[in-house]
Automatic annotation (TrEMBL):
<protein>
    <submittedName>
        <fullName>Energy transducer TonB</fullName>
    </submittedName>
</protein>
<feature type="domain" description="TonB C-terminal">
    <location>
        <begin position="77"/>
        <end position="146"/>
    </location>
</feature>
<dbReference type="InterPro" id="IPR037682">
    <property type="entry name" value="TonB_C"/>
</dbReference>
<dbReference type="Pfam" id="PF03544">
    <property type="entry name" value="TonB_C"/>
</dbReference>
Length: 147
């Protein structure tokens, strides 16, 4: 990655932190943290756990996210000259649905909102399962690409 691209990426990450300071995600992050505490550690390893899987695998997930991201945001990413990702964290329910999605590492206004929206529109995952086959809720993250 060139030094200019690194600088632009650093500026985008700072814009995301500034955007977050406006409070647009405070309620969702607070709810997420309360759920993590209420349900116990959703990130704790589970013996013999089968991890969640998106129908069609990682390639299908990337295609679906790229399709769901607003075209105007993608064209803006192209205009500023770099490809990057927004990391969205959520609780993956035993039903396979993501709940309480929020940005854990963003690119700034427009990008962050588009990434969260894309995650809310995803079809259900195949949920994580304990060793006995019982579906479980876990904390999960996806990278939403902006190419």
């Amino acid at each position: 990655m060139s030094q200019q691209t690194e600088q632009r990426l650093a500026q985008a990450r700072q814009a995301s932190r500034n955007n977050e300071a406006t409070g647009w995600q405070f309620a969702i992050k607070d709810s997420f943290q309360l759920e993590v505490v209420r349900r116990g550690n959703l990130y704790a390893p589970v013996p013999n756990m089968k991890p969640p899987e998106f129908p069609g695998g990682d390639a299908a997930l990337a295609q679906q996210l790229a399709r769901l991201v607003a075209p105007a945001v993608i064209s803006d990413a192209y205009r500023i000259g770099f490809a990057a990702t927004v990391e969205v964290e959520f609780i993956l329910e035993p039903t396979g649905r993501p709940t309480l999605p929020h940005v854990s590492s963003g690119l700034g206004p427009g990008y962050d909102e588009a990434a969260v929206y894309a995650v809310t529109q995803l079809p259900a995952f195949h949920p994580a399962r304990r060793g006995d086959g019982q579906p479980i809720a876990i904390g999960w993250q996806v990278l939403v690409p902006f190419n």
